[in-house]
# Entry
Amino acid sequence: MKIAFFEIKDWEKEYLQEKIKGHTIEFTKERLNINNVDKINDYDVVSVFIYSRVSKQVLDKLINLKLIATRSTGFDHIDVTECNRRKITVSNVPYYGENTIAEHTFALILSLSRNVHKSYLRTLRNDFSIKGLKGFDLKGKTIGVIGAGHIGLHVIRVAKAFGMNVLAYDVRQDSFISEVLGFEYVSLEDLLKNSDILTLHVPYNKYTHHLINKENIKLIKKGAILINTARGGVVDTEALIEALDEKILSGVGLDVLEGEELLLEESRLVYDPENLNNLANLVKDQILLSKDNVVFTPHIAFYSQEALERILDTTTENILAFSSGVAQNVVILK
Ligand code: NAD
# Structure
């Protein structure tokens, strides 16, 4: 087969070359788009990350395409309906980093609970005083996990190791796993009222848009901290700012922001009158990030060497399985 990998770093090229033999392979750092698709128009397989846009126009040019192997869990950058119509298989990487995201969740929790971010900034200024840096123990505190799927369950395992009590809210419940891991399913309302730490692990869709909003954020136990490593749109940013101002929340740890892609595009937005809504989002994000009880990382919860290698391993397996006639991890539109 002729296989083209897009958005590939040098180390990834070396890693993949070791694993996929006997095929013609093209690697490029570029994102696949309408301007460069002609270079590979007779290829059988393309592998992309989330910044390539595999639209109908791009598919029109790929006359031999049989498989798109995306190196991500999400596939909203690919026109899957159009692929189905053309009998092009789309495969993804359904799991690669339960522990990776869970570990980053605890990096954010511990940064807030022990004031790591404030201490770091203070000592950079040669100030070694400890006033205002008193933290709190995780042992004995209650963590509320919103979305107890792959990542949420791993967060629960780690939380138990810290000696925490665990509440979970999920539309699907598994009484066996709750008994084995020792946590309790509750309603969202009860979770908000009773948790010292809240952490979000639901997917982002029309049902979870602003799952935490101006109404229910008031239910949160006074002084709790909230962590979001899921997607920015799960929490209403304005509600978050108000909850911090009103001291409902004592801290917030974020790996994702509503409209986070705009942070890279500020200058274009300012001059585009069509984008006033986006600009408003950007301003809200900046207000949030300027607060000293907000810890932010730029969407790196997934970004560990081991998780990246697992992504490449599954992608390789997807391509080799397809070439042997038994496709795996095929994306199905619900
Ligand atoms: P998962 O599908 O295994 O788990 C999601 C859980 O949420 C499921 O148990 C599901 O029943 C529950 N759920 C879905 N809709 C719900 C709703 N409306 N209310 C309550 N519960 C609901 O997914 P996962 O692998 O644990 O990943 C969770 C999310 O984490 C992903 O969708 C993604 O957005 C995010 N994520 C972020 C990063 C990062 O780098 N920051 C990396 C990977 C994943």
Summary: The pocket of nicotinamide-adenine-dinucleotide is lined by residues 97, 101, 147-152, 169-172, 201-204, 207-208, 229-231, 255-256, 299, 301-302 (CB under 6 Å). Residues 305-323 form the longest helix (19 residues).
